[in-house]
Amino acid sequence: MVVRRLNQSSAFAVIALLLLGAARLLGAQQPRGEHARRVAVAAHAIPRGTVLDAADIEYRDTTLRVAADTGVIAPGWVTRRMINAGEVLRSPAVEPPQVVSANEPVLVEWVDGNVCLTVRGTAARNGSIGERVPVRTELGKRIEGTVVARGRVRID
What we know:
The protein is mostly beta strands. It has one helix at residues 8-27; strands at residues 35-42, 57-64, 78-79, 94-95, 105-112, 115-123, 132-137, 142-149, 152-154. The chain folds into 2 domains: 35-95, Alpha-Beta Complex (Type Iii Antifreeze Protein Isoform Hplc 12), CATH 3.90.1210; 105-154, SH3 type barrels. The strands form 3 sheets. A 5-stranded mixed β-barrel has the order 5-6-7-8-9. Strands 1-2 form a two-stranded antiparallel sheet. The relative contact order is 0.12.
């Protein structure tokens, strides 16, 4: 059996390589593109069309491989498909509630400082808060506004 002794520079090289390998292993736990964050997940299996309440949502710390907007999911949102227990709640599987429905009467408001003008209209499509929807006024004019509350649309 042949035994070789390492000189001092060779020993440092071996130690450096071992440390580099360990650093790579530790760094491999969170590669680029993954984001650790607190997300909303389903507390149990939730059927399609369910309006979420506090008992349906749990918040967990997890690592996501893709950036996803999961921070705004809240009670009142609606499931668009079957959600499994423990699944991260994100769009398009869940969506905000519709507060304006197509062919529903709405109040259309325009606000500028202390002046507020309001007319009646009919929404042309469904919309949730913050979405833009087309509206037909009583005079037959077509305008587009942003949904601000149930049955209310604001012209920007």
